[in-house]
Amino acid sequence: MALLEVRDLQVHFPIRGGLFGRTQGFVKAVDGVSLSIEPGQTYGLVGESGSGKTTTGRAVIGLNAITSGSVLFNGQELTAARNRSAARRDMQMIFQDPYSSLNPKKRVLDIIAEPLRNYESLSHKEEKFRAAELLERVGLSPESLYKYPHQFSGGQRQRIGIARAIALKPKLIIADEPVSALDVSVQAQVLNFLQDIQQELGLTYLFISHDLGIIRHMCDKIGIMYRGRHVEQGTTEDIFERPRHIYTKRLLSAIPDVDPRRRERLSAFRASVNAEYENGYADYFDEAGLAYALRPVSDTHLAALPERS
Amino acid sequence: MKKSLLKIERLTTSFRIGDDYYAAVDDVSLTVNRGEVLAIVGESGSGKSALAFSVMGLHAHARIDGRIYYKGEDLIGMPAAKLNKLRGSEIGMIFQDPLSALNPLMTVGEQIEESLLLHRNGISRAQRRNAAIELLNKVGIPSPERTAAQYPHELSGGMRQRIVIAIAIANQPSLLIADEPTTALDVTIQLQILDLIKALKNDMDAGVILITHDLGVVAEMADRVAVMYAGQIVEIADIFTLTSNPKHPYTRSLLQSIPNSAESGSRLHTIQGIVPSLKHLPRRGCRFQSRIPWIEASEHESEPELHEIEPGHFVRCTCHLRFRFPDSASDAGLPPSADAYSINGEEFRYGTS
């Protein structure tokens, strides 16, 4: 059974305006997203800014209200209020910006112990012991307990955020651009570390990123989002080796190539992918510029292909 | 041999912390030629932005030593009035964060017109307006007339970055300094912006200094690359040499850290330790020594210098001669298992975006 199953998720934000701030319309930030993640796997949600990938992650964990659709966690319907608080413990989030996601006025001890204080009644001594254990797990020394976030580098802060996220031994971690704010070499440390704790703790990840290189490195399954909808979904091989949707192809072809000898070939190739995109746009998107419903291409691979093809 | 446009000689930019000055840019010498993209690569704190700001004379309280010759004239010590004539006309700068580089209270059209007004004598209002619209068109903004009347907050990140570029190129600069011009942008927008910078370079035969931490962007854009670590240049080479035959341990470590696994789940190369802060930088010996502790101290020079190991290829210190990765990771050059993706049967490799 899938650990997380999202069915036809919709998240709409009201647009208010006019003299009395009446609702004049809705932004459909997430417009019919379905996905499922098996235990121990990593699902990558990719898209450009404004595609709704972050909103999807936040809706799953309950930071954005769900307009309609269902979120099943371990078979339990999360949109029903009574199930939410129990599941919340098993679901944690790692945020993008390690500089703003840690309270600057709190000591590391208080930051890491906060989820423990919410869910477990531990003595001070036990609490300290658990926090030190968590710090050790993320590779920071126990002396760090009494320091403040500003005393750490970006990569270290992200580790503190991770220590907080794993404090309650969650089953699912939603990682929203966890390394975007970090330098390449530090990125590598944090990514390696996320893979290590996934193994050790049997974690399941919903990994949100705009960086296709990182997504490929980390994920078993990938969903590509565009304007609140999926345009394509499949295994990592499906997406990178057999992309079907013109949007996916365009996105992949735009990734910078590390080999300068391919420049000319690549630019000709991009031009052809772009031409395919421009010519195919009317076929692949409806009048409102939205993707069609996903249709199966193979057992694992779904793409929002036009009816006609 | 192209004529050098900018020549930086032994530039040291120091900032005051407490009672002492600490060098963020330490004894850097570089040249930029016309029609050339020189990329400066490094992680945060390496001094790459401090270098760019020094060229533009934007450090108000720093101590700057050395020479920066632009078309033969020294920018350091140049009277402010004269410098102001160069900045924004001959030398354009694309700033990293468009939201803080733009004035929130002026329409973007007015901001572009402002730079025309300051640098072109006797240009009429109508001419300015037309020129601004034309610039917006040039940077690929779909409806320039409408956009010109908008304020920065009304535009998306990619659009704002284009406005910053429009301002930087308004007076057809001979030298363009781009400080992380695409860091905050999505890959498809990034590609458009990079293409734009390339086109400008070709159209105006301008020299470009491209500051970035993204090796993919470097490989796509640069003619030559200078790698900076802790304020110093540790390696300079043309882009083909740098990616096929990198020498300095830092350059090689950076190339290895790019996610490139053929199979996911394999481990990425990491660099041990952290970049030392400005105040705690070792001022003697090889600054990268603490990051590669398995290399014996005797492999490092006591006063590491840039050595020209082949024409145009400079490497600092001697530690590169016997350098190896501890985890038997593959050796120099691009990782052998670099990821390929294929679209319509064509295969390509990529780095991080």
TrEMBL record, chain A:
Keyword Transport: yes
Keywords: ATP-binding, Nucleotide-binding, Transport
SUPFAM superfamilies: P-loop containing nucleoside triphosphate hydrolases
Domain of life: Bacteria
Coiled-coil spans in chain: none
Domain ABC transporter as annotated: residue spans: 6-252
Molecular function in Gene Ontology: ATP binding
Family: Belongs to the ABC transporter superfamily.
Protein name in UniProt: ABC transporter ATP-binding protein
Species in which this protein is naturally found: Saccharibacillus alkalitolerans
UniProtKB/TrEMBL annotation, chain B:
Location of this chain's protein in the cell: Cell membrane
UniProt cross-references to Pfam families, sorted A to Z: ABC_tran, oligo_HPY
SMART domains xref list: AAA
Source organism superkingdom: Bacteria
Membrane topology note: Peripheral membrane protein
Alphabetized UniProt keyword annotations: ATP-binding, Cell membrane, Membrane, Nucleotide-binding, Transport
Domain ABC transporter: 6-255
InterPro entries, alphabetized: AAA+_ATPase (IPR003593), ABC_Ni/Peptide_Import (IPR050388), ABC_transporter-like_ATP-bd (IPR003439), ABC_transporter-like_CS (IPR017871), Oligopep_ABC_C (IPR013563), P-loop_NTPase (IPR027417)
GO molecular function: ATP binding
Keyword Transcription regulation in annotation: no
Entry's family note: Belongs to the ABC transporter superfamily.
PANTHER family, per the entry: DIPEPTIDE TRANSPORT ATP-BINDING PROTEIN DPPD (PTHR43297:SF2), OLIGOPEPTIDE TRANSPORT ATP-BINDING PROTEIN APPD (PTHR43297)
Protein name, per record: ABC transporter ATP-binding protein
Organism this protein belongs to: Saccharibacillus alkalitolerans
